[in-house]
Write a structure and sequence with these properties.
21 strands; alpha/beta
Length: 442
């Protein structure tokens, strides 16, 4: 049968969809880019925010019409919403054929077979303490970047986060298997590897920690760029920074979720670091890795957040001068500790705080980009620019998007681009024809 997978949420889900595609290909199914041609439609879902869950439920309502037209089409819900809403999902949307949580994908080919000959709607959302899908190879989308999932689950239990409940306890793959997967990805033509984990730097397998793993993957011949997301500030040790400094191909760009700037809010969030510790870490990163870019996540309007505490978040943003920030209004997730806090911030205040945060960060991001105007940066070309079919978009080592006229260049090539300007969150430039393309360096 032909299958179509639609993916929502974080990069872990993107990697999981590639894993599921690998499983389905192995079972003799084929991918299609057209949903109306598919006999199997799978939504790989996200529950991390209320809005993400609503988006998935709306999408499922749309698929009801498709199912009515063609009752033979199998519709499945995978991922975090599947785990979070399994029973109520089938009650409210009885046309859904199967519901599988993040630790049950291995059973998918068998469940598809069974569903075709039975009236039972299979639901399997059990969490596993051991499932790592170590022996399965993903079917990767054509791109320059290969996602490699190195660990699953999370033990941190931030009080706003549903992940420990939808994805279970933390467990890490063996280092040798990850290195082997990196080697195989390079063999398939991928030049950039991104190591993925809900809490990527709490990786631990036997005596190997995240620093050892980074060093081992960076040493794989042909890995031109190595990235990782998302680290937790509390697990960002000196050993990781030293390995990053020692390997030219580990990208000098760190996403370091702050979430809030006031100690009382951080404590209530169970973030396990203080404002001071975070500021010291940011300063230390810039000391050990000069030029390293920093991005972050911020939640505004966490229960009980006062105006003064929100002001502390703004102050940290001013001090750190992040290159970019992903900003969100707090949304309560059922089952999480924060829903027991009975001092919510009303939505108008949340929205006003979000607006102020964005107004603060925008010129900071712009200024940091403007510092690159006039310089030449190395860009790995990824795709056509959304702005023009005559232009490519690619990223620098420091994770800045750069848009420039295509001329002779091709996706997958490393090129030197002279930066002429900055707009929004991206840089605008032109190919630097004085310098040779960097591909020969590999
Ligand atoms: S570290 Fe916190 S925010 Fe991140 S996945 Fe774990 S519980 Fe969620």
């Amino acid at each position: 049968m032909q299958y179509f997978i639609e993916t929502y949420g974080c990069q872990m889900n993107v990697a999981d969809s590639e894993l599921v595609a690998g499983l389905l290909n192995g079972a003799g199914h084929q991918p299609t880019a057209r949903i109306d041609e598919a006999g199997i439609i799978l939504l790989n879902t996200c529950s991390v925010r209320e809005k993400a869950e609503e988006t998935v439920l709306n999408r499922l309502s749309q698929l009801a019409a498709l199912k009515k037209r063609d009752p033979g089409t199998l519709i499945g819900v995978l991922g975090c919403t599947a785990k979070n809403l399994a029973e109520s999902l089938l009650e409210s949307m009885p046309f859904v054929d199967l519901v599988l949580g993040p630790d049950s994908y291995r059973r998918l080919p068998q469940i598809i077979n069974e569903r075709q000959t039975s009236n039972v709607h299979p639901v399997d959302t059990k969490l596993s303490r051991i499932e790592l899908y170590e022996d399965l190879y993903p079917s990767r989308a054509a791109s320059v970047n290969a996602w490699i999932s190195i660990m699953r689950g999370c033990n941190k239990f931030c009080t706003f986060c549903v992940v420990p409940f939808t994805r279970g306890r933390e467990r890490s793959r063996a280092l040798a298997g990850i290195v082997e997967e990196a080697r195989s990805a390079v063999g398939q033509g991928f030049q950039e590897i991104t190591l993925l984990g809900q809490n990527v730097n709490s990786y631990r397998s036997g005596t190997d920690g995240f620093a050892q793993l980074l060093a081992a993957v960076a040493a794989v011949p042909g890995v031109r760029r190595l990235r990782f997301i998302s680290p937790h500030p509390s697990d960002m040790g000196e050993d990781v920074l030293a390995v990053m400094a020692a390997h030219y191909n580990i990208c000098k760009s760190i996403h370091l979720p702050l979430q809030a700037g006031a100690d009382r809010v951080l404590r209530r969030m169970n973030r396990t670091y203080t404002k001071q510790e975070y500021l010291q870490l940011a300063a230390r990163i810039r000391e050990v890795l000069p030029g390293c870019t920093l991005s972050t996540d911020i939640i505004v309007g966490f229960p009980g957040e006062t105006e003064a505490e929100f002001g502390e978040t703004l102050e940290v943003m001013r001090q750190v001068q992040f290159d970019s920030a992903f900003t969100f209004k707090y949304s309560p997730r059922p089952g999480t500790k924060a829903t027991e806090y009975h001092d919510p911030v009303n939505d108008a205040v949340k929205q006003a705080r979000l607006d102020r945060l964005i107004t603060l960060q925008k010129p900071i991001s712009l200024r940091r980009n403007q510092q690159l105007i006039g310089s030449t940066v190395e860009v790995l070309i990824e795709k056509e620019s959304k702005k023009s079919p005559q232009q490519w978009a690619g990223r620098t080592d420091s994770n800045k998007w750069v848009v420039f006229d295509k001329e002779w260049s091709q996706p997958g090539e490393f090129v030197n681009v002279h930066v002429d300007g900055s707009f929004g969150i991206a840089l605008q430039g032109h190919l630097n024809s004085d310098l040779e393309a960097l591909n020969a360096v590999a």
